Amino acid sequence: MTPTLSVLQAVVAWVAVALAVGLAVRWRGRAAYEGPADDAETAAQLRRLRRLADVAGIGATAAVTYRTGLGRAAQAGVTEAVTDASGLVPLGTVAGVVAAVAVYALPVMLVALVVRLATLPYRRAVRGFRVRYRDAAAWELERDGVGLVGVLLAAGAIALVPAGWPRVLAAVGLGLVATALTPFAVVVALWTRWPTDAELAAVADALPSGVRLRVVDDRTRLGSAFAAGVLPGAEYVFLTESLFAVLDDEELRAVVAHEVGHHEREHVLLRYTLVAAGAGVALGVALGVASVAPDAALVALLVGAPPFAVVLAWVVRRTEAQADAYAARAVGGDALASALETLADRRYIAAGVGPSRVLSHHPPLGDRIDELRSGGERVEPRAR
C-alpha cells in the first residue's frame, strides 16, 4: 500500500465516520425532539446524545488513524524531512511528534463540528438559541482551532523532554501553566466583551475586588455562567449576555456569587489541576510509550479516560454544591434557587441529569433548589 493511498483511504474513512455520526445524531435528535418529553428533558437528551456521539466519533477516527498507520507514517516522514533539512535532530523529533498529534486531532475537530451542526436545529428550538449554522460553524472552528494550537504546542514542548517521568512532570507543569492562561484563551475562543456600566452596576455587590466580569455572546455560550483564572488580577466570571434580560438584579447577583464562590474556595485551581494532571500524565505517557509501542499508548489512553471522567465529574459536583452554599450565604439561597428555576424554565440549564448522572458535572437541579430553599445565613464576600 503506497503512502498516498493510505492518506486517501484515511481521509475518506474520516469523512465517512463524520457523516455517519452526523446522520445518526440528526436521526436520534429528531426523535428526541418529536418525543413526549418536555423541552427541559429534551435538552438533556440532546446533550447526552452529543456526548455519546463525540465519544463514538473520536474512538472511530482514532481507530481509522491507527489502522492506516498514518500517524506513525507522518511522525517518521516529518521527523526525517525536518532533520535532513535543518540538521537538528531535536527539531526533527519535535516536528514529527506534532505531525502525529495533528493527524489524530484533525478528524476529531471534523466530528465535533458535524455533531454540533447536526443537533443545532433541535437545541435551538428547545433551548431558545439564537444561532445560525454559520455562527455555530465559525465558533466551533475557532474554539477547536485554539485548542488544537495549544495541544500541538504542548506536544512539541513535551517531546523535547527526556522520556519517562521527566516527560510526565513536564506535561503536568505545562497543564498548570495552561490553567493560569485559561481566561485569555476563553476570550479568544469565545465571543466576549467587557460589561456595560449598567450590567456591572447590577452585579457589583457580588464581585469582590480582583474578580473581573466578562459577558459572553449568546451565540457561543457554553452555559449560563462559569468561572476561570487562578492568577491574582486575572480571575474572571463569565456571564451569558441574555442573563441580564431574563434575571432580576438579585438573581443575577446570586449567579455571580456562585461563580465567585468557585474562586473563593479555590475550585477553579482544583478542577483545572485535576484536568491538567490527567491530561499531562496521559500525554506524557503516550509520547513516552509511543516511541516503543504506539498501539499500547492508544490503548492506555482509551482505557484510562472513562474512570478519570467519572472521578472528575464527582469532584466537580462536590464543588458545585459548595459554590451553591457560598452563594446562599453571600446573597441568599432563595435568590439563587429562583435564578435556577428561571434558567431551567428558559431552558438555559437542564432540569435533570438522566442516566448519565455519574458523568454529570452538576447535582440534580431539584436537589440543588431544595438545599438552597432550606436557608442559610447571609454573609458578605471577603475583600481580595
Helix content: over 70%
Beta-strand share of residues: under 5%
How many strands appear in the DSSP assignment? 4
The total of helices stands at 13
H-E order: HHHHHHEHEEEHHHHHH
Q: Which sequence of strands runs across the widest sheet?
A: 1-2-4-3
**Which value, in Å, is the CA radius of gyration?**
22 Å
What's the oligomerization state? single chain
Overall pLDDT confidence: 80
Q: Estimate nothing, just give the exact number of structural domains.
A: 2
Measure the end-to-end span: 63 Å
Classify the secondary structure makeup into a structural class. mainly alpha
Outline the biggest β-sheet.
4 strands, mixed
Low-pLDDT ranges: 376-384
* Tertiary shape: globular
What features would you highlight for this structure?
single chain, 2 domains, four-stranded mixed beta sheet, 73% helix, disordered C terminus
Topology overview:
Blueprint: H1 3-34, H2 39-68, H3 70-86, H4 89-127, H5 133-159, H6 165-189, E1 192-193, H7 197-203, E2 211-216, E3 225-228, E4 235-240, H8 243-246, H9 249-264, H10 267-290, H11 294-330, H12 333-345, H13 365-373
Parallel strand pairs: 2-4
Antiparallel strand pairs: 1-2, 3-4
Helix pairs in contact: 1-2, 1-4, 2-4, 3-4, 4-5, 5-6, 6-10, 9-11, 9-12, 10-11, 11-12, 12-13
